[in-house]
What we know:
By secondary structure, the chain is of the alpha+beta class. The protein is 36% helix and 23% strand. The strands form four sheets. The protein has an eight-stranded antiparallel β-sheet, with helices on both faces. A seven-stranded mixed β-sheet has the order 1-2-3-4-5-7-6. Helix 1 (12-24) runs antiparallel to helix 2 (30-40) and helix 10 runs parallel beside helix 20.
Amino acid sequence: xxxxxxxxxxxxxxxxxxxxxxxxxxxxxxxxxxxxxxxxxxxxxxxxxxxxxxxxxxxxxxxxxxxxxxxxxxxxxxxxxxxxxxxxxxxxxxxxxxxxxxxxxxxxxxxxxxxxxxxxxxxxxxxxxxxxxxxxxxxxxxxxxxxxxxxxxxxxxxxxxxxxxxxxxxxxxxxxxxxxxxxxxxxxxxxxxxxxxxxxxxxxxxxxxxxxxxxxxxxxxxxxxxxxxxxxxxxxxxxxxxxxxxxxxxxxxxxxxxxxxxxxxxxxxxxxxxxxxxxxxxxxxxxxxxxxxxxxxxxxxxxxxxxxxxxxxxxxxxxxxxxxxxxxxxxxxxxxxxxxxxxxxxxxxxxxxxxxxxxxxxxxxxxxxxxxxxxxxxxxxxxxxxxxxxxxxxxxxxxxxxxxxxxxxxxxxxxxxxxxxxxxxxxxxxxxxxxxxxxxxxxxxxxxxxxxxxxxxxxxxxxxxxxxxxxxxxxxxxxxxxxxxxxxxxxxxxxxxxxxxxxxxxxxxxxxxxxxxxxxxxxxxxxxxxxxxxxxxxxxxxxxxxxxxxxxxxxxxxxxxxxxxxxxxxxxxxxxxxxxxxxxxxxxxxxxxxxxxxxxxxxxxxx
Length: 607
């Protein structure tokens, strides 16, 4: 195992030799290397002054060297060289990430890198942003070298610590992630939710991202080994233990862990936070956290609507408007309400009390009612169970119906001490009431919505804390045509946007500030792929996104083995243009590679 340690003054001469061998690896001639030598020489006194560290193998062999020079808030990555025999083995990546971590500890907020042209691909892959071409340091130091020699390429990065909310979420350390999505959904016994929880077991893969740096993942179904390896590589994780395949059919993952006393003791006895998708009674038994009756009452859409009304009754939220909502005592009552609203030319939202990803929520326009043959015909096509009838919030943001986002969300959490923490706002991709993904990051929430969204989301967090709820929550909104936001529901659990926030926090700490992260719920594959081909596809997508200056992380791999195959994915970049290009690349390549295998066959099986 390679580790980083402080260099020793007595190693200065040997380290100089390593630097020169690394420089020569790129094919420079003897005259150029001789001109470089004074610039690249390491003296005994430099070791401390230049904050030089080395990467050392388990056998004590020095494989690389790096320096962090200057004083906060500005510093320079003066050296980063790897022994030629170790290039491509992750040594440079280890040294670079160590330099960013040390820069954060020192208070550096701007790190400058003047890169050899041959190393530019490495620095781009590490997340550094190209600035302007620097004057060749060698040319300045050695006038006898031709002026058109290789100029250095300047990169910059903004080192930042892990976001404050992320430190508060897990106490600043690693956590054990429990993928109990099916278990959470099953406790509501809603007719709109799949009783077998098959989709939920796919979404349990999101357990990889319940915090910025997991120690262990606990999953109901088996997952591909290549998936976890790629995710760890993309997010700089090491030592993540995976316990999968714990369930055959029953959605009770927490009880499945408790049925294995050795595993339960291992997961709960390490002193690490145990993070679930959502709170359940079985999770309370596993974690030793008392289950509070009614703590999830605001997961109910009617209870959340009542909570919103109480908050707005106190005033102070002029940018928020609450749509009217009625509870139908039965299907015929719902039909009468829907018919009356249709005659008045009003669109209506029909909701079940619970549901995920838009399940149980249907937007019904007058045209749709008439095309179906009336309100009763519309209702006959919906899942059975109690219904809420809600006023449809029409229009878009004040800047125009076709401009800006329509669906937004606020994420936060209540810690075990009852303190509410703000995480941030996100823009969701919603079509016909169904969630398809979300984007988080700097500037994503438009200025006209940010203040209202944050103030109301914070108020909801305080009320949840007072009610006894502990854990993650979000508040979903739709925008109307007057620049106002209408809250539509709360989710007392982790969500797709929360996963994007976790990954953004990790990438910012790992690669520098400013990442936009998009989670795409379902990316269609042209055909079902064996695991080996799925691994190849994901590796190719990671390379393709890196070439664009983006990061690709497969989020849900197991959907690739369904008869209608799909992937859940995350893409990250520092600009909207690159983010959009990366998502387009992923969607196109997923279909193109899948098409090579033809349509799915009944005999297809996982390898």
